[in-house]
Design goal:
The structure is a single chain. This protein has 19 helices and 15 strands. The chain has 524 residues and is of the alpha/beta class. Strand 10, helix 11 and strand 11 form a beta-alpha-beta unit.
Length: 524
């Protein structure tokens, strides 16, 4: 083969190769131009800490925010269609997100609620609203009666009971870090006191449920020694005995096996990887007298810290009987937390969430009025817990007689919860209510703690603005007459008219008892 022929053949081969390379290069270039930005976006999503959804679901997570930006009602459909009549109003959910992020929380075009529909409520304002500069420290509430040696100064808004197990470790860490920064309390829920609750130094309310998690014997009864050891920790400020909760009153807590990890089982003193159903009632007491003595026992074992109990009101007679036991023995709780039967953040059987227990307003009024009737209210602080999301919600329960509030739903939303309704499946996409470490990693503790702090601070600030608008000096001056409710198209009544207040001590010696309470004092 001559030199020219060889050169020709080589040139031909090179040309063929170049054509093939060019063909694939053009397609590779188009491939890179289309998929390259998505690849880079995915890398960015996995590195950022702002959004748990994007960190856990890079690229495709943007579709959620796209839908929300194009039309908020689209996300409303996905999030709330299956809530069986228990949706959170989209306005308030947005309000929580905005206050958590510290952005403008105003809204245009006036009220988005039906003001002429029965059930619409509002607070009356004054022509002489107070022109007060609202500054920190915000007002606080001192909890602790005459037998309490270590009273606690509490915020007007605190974190309601949510257990480690139901929530992830990062969620608990973020909540407690936010509580520490904002100077408010964090309730452990009935799942026990874990090292995640203690790591960041926030004030703790240790809840003792029917299963006595963290202070139980091998057979599931109350263990005094374990309780005393943990209750005396400096970070534990109060003890709360859980009788019932709004999500499932009379049922007991539920932790599915898929969320019962060895770590959680160790904290709760139970076996791992099994479904955990707390008993519906306590074994440490079985009647009102035993109950009040159990309260005293916990106060003594804790070194004199405030001890109270939480309930969703069921049989009214039972609460009246507990109050009678307080009068007879002189033993009083330092606080009572009233939960609403509307259903809390915990997963529960539908029938229990929808059809068991008094709603918050009715239960709260009954508890407050009963305490007033026995002249006990002056010694016992009342905490309201049940769908507290806005400053109006707080003002409304303060008007009914509560001294302060707890919020679970608001705090979860500030953590980044999108109400995917997968709390009981271990598949929470935001890492809030799961034990799946792949999903938990998306929840950045430092950032979410700041959002929790912001929600608390901005909501309390808004409450104080609302209080000033009514013309009163302090949150303690808000009364039932300040809140109005539409009964029907032609009738509006104040809470004072709907829920008439009692004279303090009118139940003592069973004289001058209002008709609606007479049934509880009939001699057997």
């Amino acid at each position: 083969m001559s030199y020219k022929e060889l050169y020709k053949n080589i040139s031909f081969l090179i040309t063929i190769v170049l054509i093939i390379i060019s063909f694939f290069w053009i397609h590779a270039l188009w491939f890179f131009l289309f998929f390259g930005p998505l690849f880079l976006l995915g890398i960015y999503d996995m590195q950022q800490k702002r959004h748990a959804i994007l960190k856990n679901f890079p690229v495709i997570g943007h579709f959620r925010y796209l839908f929300e930006k194009i039309r908020p009602e689209i996300m409303q459909y996905f999030v709330e269609t299956n809530t069986e009549g228990r949706p959170i109003n989209r306005i308030y959910r947005s309000l929580v997100y905005e206050r958590s992020k510290g952005v403008n929380d105003t809204t245009p075009f006036g009220t988005q609620m039906s003001t002429y529909k029965a059930g619409y409520e509002w607070i009356d304002h004054s022509m002489y609203a107070k022109n007060k500069k609202i500054e920190k420290p915000f007002p606080r509430v001192l909890i602790g009666g005459k037998d309490c040696k270590q009273p606690y100064s509490a915020s007007l808004l605190n974190i309601s009971a949510m257990s480690f197990g139901a929530l992830s470790d990062n969620a608990v860490l973020a909540l407690n870090k936010g509580a520490k920064a904002g100077n408010f309390a964090h309730n452990t829920g009935e799942g026990g006191l874990s090292h995640y609750h203690l790591r960041n130094g926030g004030d703790i309310v240790w809840q003792i449920g029917t299963a006595y998690f963290g202070c139980r014997t091998e057979d599931g009864n109350f263990d005094e020694k374990l309780f005393e050891e943990k209750a005396k920790k400096e970070q534990v400020k109060m003890i709360e005995i859980k009788l019932s909760q709004g999500a499932k009153p009379g049922h007991g807590g539920i932790l599915p096996a898929v969320k019962n990890t060895p770590e959680i089982a160790k904290i709760r003193n139970i076996k791992p990887h099994i479904d955990v159903h707390s008993p519906p009632s306590h074994t440490a007491f079985s009647n009102p007298m035993e109950f009040v003595h159990f309260i005293k026992k916990l106060r003594d074992l804790s070194g004199g810290k405030p001890v109270g109990f939480k309930l969703c009101v069921g049989k009214k007679q039972e609460f009246v009987d507990v109050c009678k036991a307080m009068i007879e023995t002189g033993i009083k709780p330092d606080f009572i937390t009233v939960d609403g039967g509307e259903g809390g953040t915990g997963a529960a059987p539908v029938e229990f969430s929808n059809s068991v227990g008094f709603p918050l307003r009715d239960g709260l009024v009954f508890v407050v009025d009963t305490l007033v009737g026995f002249d006990l209210k002056k010694d016992i602080k009342v905490i309201a817990s049940g769908k507290i999301l806005s400053s109006f919600h707080i003002a409304r329960v303060l008007a009914l007689g509560a001294d302060l509030c707890n919020s679970a739903r608001g705090m979860m939303l500030s953590l980044g919860c999108i109400q995917s309704l997968e709390c009981n499946k271990n598949t929470c996409p935001t890492g809030v209510a799961t034990q799946n470490q792949t999903l938990i990693k998306g929840l950045d503790v430092d950032r979410k703690a700041k959002l929790v702090e912001n929600f608390h601070n901005n909501t309390v600030f808004s409450l104080l603005e609302l209080i000033a608008a009514t013309g009163v000096e302090s949150h303690t001056d808000i009364e039932r007459k300040h809140v109005m409710r539409r009964i029907n198209m032609n009738n509006v009544m104040s809470f004072a008219e709907i829920f008439p207040e009692l004279e303090p001590g009118c139940f003592i010696n069973e004289k001058n008892i209002p008709h609606r309470f007479a049934q509880f004092f009939v001699s057997s």
